[in-house]
Design a protein that fits this description.
The protein is mainly alpha-helical. It has nine helices and six strands. A two-stranded antiparallel ribbon has the order 1-2. The relative contact order is 0.18.
């Protein structure tokens, strides 16, 4: 697996004035890139919506409550990848095992071990394709424009996950969650849950505009390589 990045805190982040200026840069980049990306992807978004509706009943867009910066709840938008009214118990129980350090793995098509649910019958055929390519995340550009998310940051957490966190994990809530992040470009589901949180905390405590841009540039290559995808 790739080595976890070491991120140093800069003066911009420790001085109040510098921090405000840096946050303004992030917000400006988020609005510019997500806004242009959303418009450019409209034909693809429409095509995915049609494919989802043709395969199964229910809306094409899935909405779920997540926790953002400072644990503030918000509604995240994704393409629906499961059957309508799928039972969340399976995922909740699996997350409990992950956080407790009792991870189980399954091998992907290339033989790599992934920390993901295997053979999840709740996922549709279209949903499996969307998950493997991360196209199910595209509607989150709307959440970025609204200001609930950033393009780069920790993975948005489901409330029942946070209920199981030890106090040290709460440091990941110091910043907005992101569509992509350090975890996504460093192996994704090849990482344990603890490693994922450590990467998120490293970002929250030492992010920079340079790292932000680096993660954005690396994300398409990570998706094309399907590293850690399932």
């Amino acid at each position: 697996m790739d080595a976890m990045p070491t991120v140093a805190v800069t003066d911009e982040q420790t001085e109040p004035g510098g921090r405000s200026a840096t946050l303004l840069v992030y917000r400006s980049l988020d609005l510019l890139i997500a806004g242009i990306g959303f418009i450019a992807c409209l034909p693809l978004l429409a095509l995915i919506c049609v494919a989802i509706r043709l395969e199964s009943d229910g809306p094409a867009i899935f909405r779920q409550q997540r926790l953002g910066r400072d644990k503030q709840p918000f509604t995240v938008h994704k393409f629906r990848t499961m059957i309508l009214e799928a039972d969340p118990t399976v995922h909740r129980e699996y997350v409990e095992q992950l956080i407790a350090g009792k991870e189980t793995t399954h091998a992907d098509d290339s033989g790599r071990d992934l920390y993901k649910l295997a053979a999840d019958d709740r996922v549709t055929r279209v949903g499996r394709l969307l998950r493997r390519t991360s196209l199910d995340e595209l509607p989150q550009m709307f959440d970025v424009v609204r200001g609930n998310m950033s393009l780069v940051g920790p993975r948005p957490v489901i409330p029942y996950e946070a209920e199981l966190y030890p106090p040290s994990y709460d440091r990941r809530f110091a910043v907005k969650p992101g569509m992509t992040g350090v975890w996504q470009v460093n192996g994704r589901s090849e990482r344990t849950y603890r490693e994922m949180v450590e990467l998120d905390i490293a970002w929250a405590e030492g992010h920079s505009v340079l790292l932000y841009l680096s993660v954005l540039v690396r994300t398409p290559w990570a998706l094309l390589a399907r590293r850690g995808a399932a």
